[in-house]
Design goal:
This protein is of the alpha/beta class. The chain has two domains: 284 residues, Orthogonal Bundle (ABC transporter involved in vitamin B12 uptake, BtuC), CATH 1.10.3470; 244 residues, P-loop containing nucleotide triphosphate hydrolases (Rossmann fold). Helix 2 runs parallel beside helix 6. The chain is 55% helix and 12% strand. It has a six-stranded mixed beta sheet with strand order 12-13-14-9-15-16, with helices on both faces. A four-stranded antiparallel beta sheet has the order 8-7-10-11, covered by helices on one side.
Length: 590
């Protein structure tokens, strides 16, 4: 649960009241403008989730709007379908197209992704204009008006209610989605993919889900547009309109659902005003509003980089959330924890980077219920070994077995499903999210709610249980007072403890800790050591990579010492402390 502000809620209420009043008091021009703002808001909302939240830039959403419009236009005029039956047909066709395009497009990274969306956006636009059975560039007319129970929506004022009912429903569903199990995972896609996958999130699948979700919203907007205009041609579905949709999302607030409405309203109204004002001021006609849009974008990126809506929300004081409701626990892995044999076996592992051998013929085992320390000087290969076990790096040779199963070729999210949780050497938190939400992400695999259940708010019981688990992990690590703080506002040492709490929320069988004591003060280290001993007594197995020798020696059951990628020694802490090779290579002895 994140901090909330009173002002945005008041603004939302005022906005809804304004929506109800407009068709009764406003002149026809403003009702028409309100219709288009609603249609554009639906498309921009999809881009908020796809681009602002999931980090996947798309310039091609106008093509999906066209797909929805043309599907309904053709089926109603050529196949005599009811307009209401064409909506599910358009959604199915759009979903199939989005899946096909997403499977190819979302594999690309960097500048290749937006370039690919431009390419298929142009391709679909040209398809609409070059097929004679779709009316070519002339378009298709005679599209019937919608009617509800015999009540025809033939006027702009009547249609207004339907458009905004759909827009508000989409906003409600999207807010629900972001405040849920899949929503937290979506928010982690932008800049935190490796971290999210370490807790069981299938990043490729979730990106595709976001892509299809955005495409379906665009399709609904296109369907509404076709029956509002009762005529379609390719012009509104070109790449220029796709760029404008992205502008709406960015200007309004690319990571805020209400930013979609703000951006759509600002650009639509500004465009209409400038088209009238600029020619009069300059004494000549032309697309001068594009120049103004460019200037506005530069100013916004300079002074309100997150968009207009988040900037407005920050002007009001934030009210911190209260308590987490009590709920029954989520399913635990406790019963699956083995008591015999090696839990993890590293056998002859080798990792090379070109001609550099980072790990060479390394072998050791971790027994159930013990704390094993992996130590060594800088460059010894500890972090590489950690990455090989967690799946973030691929083996060059050897084998890693977890409960007798080879995991060397598995992805991080597949390894997480087996019951392996981890922290990171460099803190990987979502700084703008609360500590509670960050820790709740760790429990991703312990929930089952998907996008549909979350959007319809049918996941509240599971969500309450997830938050209760996260709150329990936070309290156990001594961070109760920071539960509703933004994670990015905390000191580095405290952020490391948040990572430990997030890993505990996953209830792992094997816990991998990468330098968890770095940056902690003496009392914080003592509290962390007590926590880890308590976890060991409960049956949890821990692999600890750490540089603080005093911390490691007083905590671990056994140590594996590495040097230059090889195992230098293995044994109990006291024995390792007295090993001449270890003293010479690491502990500074002679």
């Amino acid at each position: 649960m994140r901090g909330t502000s009173v002002a945005p809620r008041v603004a939302m209420t005022a906005f809804v009241v304004l929506l109800v009043v407009i068709p009764w008091i406003a002149p026809p021009f403003w009702v028409t403008l309100g219709n288009y703002i609603g249609l554009y808001s639906i498309v921009a909302l999809g881009l908020v989730l796809l681009t602002g939240v999931a980090g996947q830039t798309s310039f091609g959403q106008a093509a999906f709007v066209g797909l929805g419009a043309y599907t309904s236009a053709w089926l109603t005029t050529h196949a005599a379908w009811s307009p209401w039956l064409t909506l599910p047909a358009a959604l199915v066709l759009t979903a199939a197209m989005a899946l096909a395009l997403g499977f190819i497009t979302l594999r690309m990274k960097g500048h290749y992704l937006p370039l690919a969306t431009i390419a298929w956006g142009i391709a679909l636009y040209l398809t609409f204009g070059n097929l004679d059975w779709l009316g070519g560039h002339t378009g298709m007319s005679g599209i019937p008006a919608l009617s509800i129970g015999g009540f025809g929506l033939r006027s702009e004022r009547r249609y207004y209610a339907l458009i905004w009912a759909v827009a508000l429903a989409a906003l409600w569903a999207s807010r629900n989605l972001l405040d849920s199990r899949p929503g937290r995972a979506l928010r982690a896609m932008k800049g935190g993919l490796e971290m999210a996958e370490a807790f069981g999130v299938d990043g490729a699948r979730l990106k595709t889900v976001a892509f299809v979700y955005a495409a379906l919203l665009a399709c609904v907007s296109g369907w509404l547009y076709a029956h509002l205009q009762r005529f379609v041609n390719p012009t509104p579905f070109g790449i220029n309109q796709g760029i404008e949709y992205l502008f709406m999302a960015v200007i309004g607030g690319a990571a805020s659902v209400w930013g979609a409405v703000v951006g759509a309203a600002l650009i639509t109204v500004l465009k209409e005003v400038l088209q009238d004002v600029l020619p009069a001021l300059l004494g000549r006609s032309g697309n001068f509003e594009i120049v103004v849009f460019g200037i506005v974008m530069i100013v916004l990126l300079q002074f309100a980089r997150d968009g207009v809506w988040p900037w407005l929300a920050r002007l009001a004081p934030t009210r911190r959330a209260g308590t987490v409701p009590a709920a029954s626990p989520l399913p635990s892995r406790q019963a699956d924890r083995p008591r015999h044999a090696a839990l993890l076996a590293v056998r002859g592992v080798r990792k090379t980077f070109g001609g550099l051998v980072a790990v060479d013929d390394l072998s050791f085992e971790i027994r159930p219920g013990e704390i094993l320390g992996l130590i060594g000087p800088n460059g010894a290969g500890k972090s590489t070994t950690f990455g090989l076990i967690s799946g973030s790096l691929r083996l060059s040779g050897g084998e890693i077995l977890f409960r007798g199963r080879s995991i060397g070729s598995l992805t991080p999210y597949e390894i997480a499903k087996l019951g392996i949780g981890r922290t990171f050497q460099h803190v990987r938190l979502l700084g703008y999210m609360s500590v509670l939400d960050n820790v709740a992400l760790g429990a991703y695999l312990r929930g089952r709610a998907g996008v549909l259940r979350a959007s319809l708010r049918l996941d509240r019981a599971e969500e309450a249980r997830t938050r209760a688990v996260a709150a329990r992990a936070i309290e156990r690590t001594g961070l109760r007072t920071h539960m509703f703080d933004e994670a990015g506002s905390l000191p580095l040492g405290t952020q490391r403890i948040v990572e430990v709490a997030r890993a505990l929320a996953a209830d792992p069988v094997l816990l991998l800790l990468d330098e968890p004591a770095a940056g902690l003060r003496f009392l914080e280290k003592k509290a962390l050591a007590d926590l880890l001993r308590g976890l060991r007594s409960e049956g949890m197995t821990i692999l600890l990579v750490e540089h603080d020798m005093e911390f490691v020696m007083g905590l671990t059951d056994r140590l594996v010492v590495m040097d230059f990628g090889e195992k230098l020694a293995e044994g109990e802490p006291d024995a390792v402390r007295q090993n001449p090779a270890v003293l010479e290579a690491y502990l500074g002895g002679t």
